[in-house]
Write a structure and sequence with these properties.
The chain has about 300 residues and is mostly helical. It is about 65% helix and about 0% strand. It folds into 2 domains: about 220 residues, Hypothetical protein af1432, CATH 1.10.3210; about 80 residues, no CATH class.
Length: about 300
């Protein structure tokens, strides 16, 4: 079985711009998206309240736990997320307070943001495509979490950050599905094996889901390095060495592992493999064994 490539050649990003020029370019791109009718979803009340509490420097675990518990769906999914082997040293978790104490306040907020975004996207049409999208995103996020946990000493990217990026990395897709009635058909998403060609996407809609995802991430006040990784996760060379590049490499390896889980070919892997392996400190000869061990961990805790 095969899967359509996500991108054969990503248009060059303006990485050589000054901060002021980059800000102007971002503003121009955002205006274009909004003028096309693409809507950036607002943060749920629970996330806004948590952010406000942390910005005020509040560290009352019981109060923060009460805020999270206002949303039963988020609470249930949070307990599910921390069952990952990335948090094995802290398990079992008997309460929200235990999660906050063991995982950390800011880290828990990252998990809550990812869960909240999954829960607020509702698409009335193309239900099967929508469900497959979120199944794919959750699997990639879980795999990214495991990779980050294992590679943390090399990359300095943590499990909660990788999970958040994994959920958001393609979050522009459902927004473009909602805006453009022909999007699913044009991008061949009704084919269970296909994914998105960025050049074709940009040609037809003058927008690509990575840029949309970048603006959603910024709108939700995600850390800047996560926003950058989302924007350029198909084009690692556009990122300077650092957290963003490491996180983008983690996402790409998680995507490759997802193809293995689904027994699909990954035609994009050959293009990105060398950059990913170098960034994560994994020798090419060791990659098959690394993937086998990763998938075993994933299967044991999925």
């Amino acid at each position: 079985m095969s899967a359509s490539t996500a991108s054969q050649a990503v248009p060059a990003a303006p990485v050589d711009l000054s901060p002021e020029q980059r800000q102007e370019e971002d503003a121009r791109l955002l205006r274009r998206l909004l003028s096309q009718g693409v809507k950036l979803p607002p943060q749920p009340k629970v996330v806004e309240e948590l952010e406000a509490q942390l910005k005020r420097g509040e560290a009352d675990v019981r109060k923060i736990a009460r805020t999270i518990s206002q949303d039963a769906g988020i609470t249930a999914m949070l307990f599910k997320a921390v069952q990952s082997s990335a948090y094995r040293q802290h398990q079992p978790f008997g309460s929200l307070e235990k999660i906050l104490q063991a995982v950390g306040l800011k880290q828990t907020l990252n998990l809550v943001q990812a869960i909240a975004f999954m829960g607020m996207n509702k698409v009335s049409k193309n239900r099967k495509v929508y469900e497959r999208f979120w199944s794919r995103s959750q699997t990639i996020a879980q795999l990214a979490m495991l990779i980050a946990d294992e590679r943390v000493m090399v990359c300095n990217v943590f499990a909660d950050q990788a999970y958040l990026a994994g959920i958001f990395h393609d979050c522009g897709v459902p927004l473009l599905m909602e805006r453009f009635p022909t999007y699913c058909r044009s991008m061949h998403l009704e084919d269970g094996e296909a994914w998105i060609d960025l050049l074709e996407e940009d040609k037809k809609y003058q927008a690509d889901h990575c840029v949309v995802g970048y603006f959603v991430a910024r709108h939700w006040h995600l850390p800047e390095f996560i926003c950058e990784a989302i924007r350029f996760h198909h084009d690692l060379p556009q990122l300077v060495p650092g957290d963003s590049r490491s996180l983008a490499a983690i996402i790409q390896l998680a995507i490759h592992a997802y193809h293995r889980v689904q027994h699909l070919d990954d035609p994009d892997w050959q293009r990105v493999a060398a950059d990913v392996q170098e960034e994560l400190g994994i020798h090419a000869d060791s990659m098959p064994e690394y993937l086998d061990e990763l998938l075993e961990r994933f299967q044991n805790h999925s």
